[in-house]
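Dear colleagues,

As part of the handover before I leave the project, I'm documenting each prediction I ran so the next person doesn't have to rerun anything. This entry is a single chain, and its sequence is reproduced below.
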Amino acid sequence: GIMRPLPLSSRGIVGLNVFFALCTPLFLVLWLNERESIKLRRVYTFLTVMAWLGTFATGTRSLWLGNALVTIVVVIYHYRKMWKKLAVVLLLLTGLTVAVAGIFPQYGQRMISAVDFQNQSASERYRIWQSCIHMFVEHPVLGVGAGNYTEQYQNHYILPEAKEPYLMYAHSNY
């Protein structure tokens, strides 16, 4: 399995990496902004790469997926009329991802486990997400109410095939 980083502060290094992952779209937009000076774009390039590496360091597959999807959307939107540049940027980011997976095999294995539905963690997470989508569709504006997830999930939204009925929140359960 993957070894999670040791705490750095009260929220730990994972909290710092999540912060950088959440900043990735901003860093990416700034990096892609051709109106910025070359010097600033180099800084944004560095920050974008560091944010991506911070995302990997969390070991959190859903964060990886969310970050990848946001990055793809930002890059496609930015380069929607410049297909060659779009291809280059997407290839660079894909290359960075593959390089990290190659250098650190545990991350590559963890990426694969995210879509391996023979793995209970992945299949159960998918079921939880399905339940949460049903919650969202029925309660799109205010949700089910603060602190009501557990009761609502267990009594109204849990799928019959779910193997983890007593979850307190829709999060990583392994």
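Residues 12-32 form the longest helix (21 residues). DSSP finds seven helices and no strands in the chain.

All the best with the project,
I.
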